[in-house]
Inverse folding.
């Protein structure tokens, strides 16, 4: 699980939008890219995102 304090400072690397935790993925509220969480760490790489 990702800590709420960490989510508050994270941003989407593609558009710098705010992100939320949804279905065990980090989801951008602006562009809707979905970033995986692997071994408990968010993988915030634009190449790894699902559109």
């Amino acid at each position: 699980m990702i800590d709420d304090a960490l989510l508050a400072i994270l941003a989407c690397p593609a558009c710098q939008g705010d992100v939320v935790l949804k279905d065990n993925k980090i989801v951008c509220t602006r562009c809707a890219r979905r970033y995986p969480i692997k071994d408990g760490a968010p993988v915030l790489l634009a190449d790894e995102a699902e559109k």
In short: The CA atoms of residues 27 and 34 lie 4 Å apart. The two ends are 22 Å apart (CA to CA). The chain has one domain: 4-48.
